[in-house]
Specification:
By secondary structure, the chain is mainly α. It has helices spanning 9-21, 90-95, 100-113, 115-119; strands spanning 121-124, 134-137. InterPro entries: GH, GH13_cat_dom.
Length: 139
């Protein structure tokens, strides 16, 4: 999955939906890995989804994963992203209105309040190419 650039609300929403957030609008229990709401990608060599949580933009403290006094430990056991766009961390996305994190939070709140998402029926529509279409409704 590619990271989000300085796009608008719909670009961020599309990216959130593409990185596996559809379960927020489907019935059943959620199962998410940390960092998924930020759109974090696999890191390391070979690539692994077991990277560190990126709390802050890159720096000497391993994206805010360690305190300043612990930051000189050298290489971490888990890999960290070496991407320098600095959009893939909690601090940056929390400050932006339409970041993947904010859209994820809005979808989660909507899932708690919207009757169709709480108890509604799900209708699967005919597949159109690579597009899966479904709707939720209350009778």
């Amino acid at each position: 999955m590619e990271r989000i650039s300085e796009g608008g609300f719909f670009l961020a929403l599309l990216a959130v939906l593409q990185c596996g957030q559809q379960p927020l609008t489907l019935p059943g229990a959620l199962s998410l890995y940390y960092g998924q709401e930020l759109g974090l990608t696999n890191v390391g060599n070979p690539p692994s989804p077991r990277g560190i949580m990126q709390w802050a933009p890159s720096g000497n403290d391993h994206h805010g994963f360690l305190s300043s006094s612990e930051a000189n430990i050298g290489k971490l056991f888990f890999a960290e992203s070496d991407n320098t766009d600095e959009q893939d961390n909690f601090e940056t996305q929390y400050a932006k209105e339409n970041s993947p994190l904010k859209i994820y939070q809005k979808l989660a709140r909507m899932r708690q309040r919207d009757e169709a998402l709480i108890v509604g029926s799900t209708v699967r529509h005919t597949l159109e190419g690579d597009v899966i279409i479904y709707s939720r409704y209350v009778k």
